[in-house]
Amino acid sequence: MAQQDTDQQRAGVLPVDDEGYVIDTEDCEEREAAYRERGTSRPITVVGNPVLHKECRDVTEFDDELRKLVDDMFASQRTAEGVGLAANQIGVDLKVFVYDCPDDEGVRHVGVVCNPKLVELPAEKRRLDDSNEGCLSVPTAYAPLARPDYAEVTGQDEWGNPIKVRGTGYFARCLQHETDHLYGYLYIDRLSKRERKEALRQMAENEPRYPVVAND
């Protein structure tokens, strides 16, 4: 019904701060639960699946089908106990990712970004953090990877509104990692050949804790 649709739309649009960045730290539990409970969990695609190794298509239709995808992505992310999930990780060739991720201060961030683009950082903001990184599409494998400890992403929400998201520490890593996915890059693609081989060995020797799509 029309009133219900209006309420849902209002709930999906995040407020912004004085600098125009989304405020994604409020009502996190309620918002994530609402997405997840509407969605259906799907299995995760893993390294080797072609959809993970090419740039995804831009989102051009901000419709009910897209919002159903977002709901399913939150449900899938929760099942896999992840902090971020790109659409191609559940086999969908579209530039959209969701996140439910803490920063290094333990502040929780929940949101959706369509058509993300990383903002080029000035030199004074490029402090590298070489913490371990993992990926739901490379299950059970981890490796240190240097990334800037601050990130900004521009894009749109699931209603087509322009948005800006920024984060520090672990959340900055998440924003960079998920944006990479939508342009066809896995974190292991940024490792040395030896480190990549070691990550794939870890994956081969362990069982994922969530459903995955086997590569033929």
UniProtKB/TrEMBL annotation:
The active site is at residue 178. Its cofactor is Fe(2+). Fe cation binds at residues 135, 177, 181. Pfam families: Pep_deformylase. Binds 1 Fe(2+) ion. It comes from the Bacteria. It catalyses: N-terminal N-formyl-L-methionyl-[peptide] + H2O = N-terminal L-methionyl-[peptide] + formate. Signal peptide: none annotated. The keyword 4Fe-4S does not apply. Keywords: Hydrolase, Iron, Metal-binding, Protein biosynthesis. Gene3D superfamilies: Peptide deformylase (3.90.45.10). InterPro entries: Peptide_deformylase (IPR023635), Peptide_deformylase_sf (IPR036821). Its EC number is 3.5.1.88. HAMAP family: Pep_deformylase (MF_00163). Removes the formyl group from the N-terminal Met of newly synthesized proteins. Requires at least a dipeptide for an efficient rate of reaction. N-terminal L-methionine is a prerequisite for activity but the enzyme has broad specificity at other positions. Belongs to the polypeptide deformylase family. This is Peptide deformylase. It comes from Streptomyces thermospinosisporus. The gene is def_2.
